[in-house]
Write a structure and sequence with these properties.
Length: 276
């Protein structure tokens, strides 16, 4: 296993190589992360994941005034993906953020461990404000195609652009419980997950992986944009539109995090050669 991290660009996992094969969509030029920050490598999403509405709302006594940063008019993927993170001697990276329309201060840490056949990413989001803060954390890896995938979820929110309040049972193109190619054009969220929730296989290079996730609540977002040479498989702690879900008392909402408290998520990818 080999991993390369870019602390200056969101402590992004720039390269992940197993058995000599690159598995992430990695640009030839690091400047691509400035031009298209959302479509390369693997980055942390916090203090929210995926889309929330770029519409002013009040949460308690505080007003959220986020600007849109995506063509569909949403505020997407949080705030820490482009910040410089500070490395520590123990192998962790951390960033202290707040503002830009998000009226709370918070800190995020990431610890990456690499061993012979696995990589583990541990994340902590801590509320550094004096009152409660909505909170969510996740990661956004882009895995190179061709790749087969299994998502062991029994229910699905069939679109991330405007998620319904409740998920539906998986069926048709959203039933990915068995390993197969994901259909083009999907952008959805899977719930009611078994553990481990995700399996991946790269048949051309003979590599497979199992993704295990630990968090108070776990959801898997997957996206397969047509014409892109990668798919996104995103473990996270809430469903898209997490702020709307919180205010409307819908399931899968952002967590209300007390002052000084932390939300944690760990992701482990265990790799093997295939056939073994």
């Amino acid at each position: 296993m080999e991993a390369e991290i870019l602390p200056d660009i969101g402590a992004r996992l720039h390269r992940l190589r197993a058995f000599g094969h690159d598995l992430l969509r990695t640009p030839d030029d690091d400047a691509a992360y400035e031009r298209e920050p959302f479509f390369w490598g693997c980055y942390v999403m916090a203090p929210w994941c995926n889309r929330i509405e770029a519409t002013p709302v009040n949460v308690g006594a505080r007003g959220v005034h986020l600007g849109a940063n995506y063509p569909d008019g949403s505020a997407i993927h949080g705030q820490v993906y482009r910040h410089r993170w500070e490395p520590s001697d123990d192998g962790t990276f951390h960033v202290h953020v707040g503002g830009d329309g998000w009226p709370w201060d918070y800190e995020v840490t990431q610890r990456i461990e690499v061993a012979d056949r696995w990589i583990r990413l541990d994340h902590t989001l801590t509320n550094r404000s004096p009152d409660r803060m909505p909170a969510g954390i996740g990661i956004h890896p882009w895995f190179r195609r061709p790749v087969l995938i299994s998502i062991r979820g029994e229910a699905v929110y069939d679109r991330n652009s405007d998620t319904p309040a409740q998920p539906d049972p998986v069926s048709g193109s959203f039933d990915l419980r068995e390993l197969r190619e994901i259909p083009d054009g999907l952008d959805a969220t899977w719930a009611e997950l078994a553990q481990p929730p995700v399996r991946l296989r790269w048949p051309r290079v003979g590599v497979q992986a199992t993704m295990s996730v630990s968090a108070p609540d776990v959801y898997i977002v997957a996206a397969s944009p047509s014409g892109l040479d990668a798919i996104a498989v995103e473990p996270q702690t809430h469903v898209p539109q997490g702020l709307r879900r919180l205010l409307n008392h819908e399931p899968g909402a952002l967590t209300m995090l007390e002052s000084g408290r932390s939300l944690r998520m760990g992701v482990e990818l265990a790799f093997a050669q295939w056939p073994g």
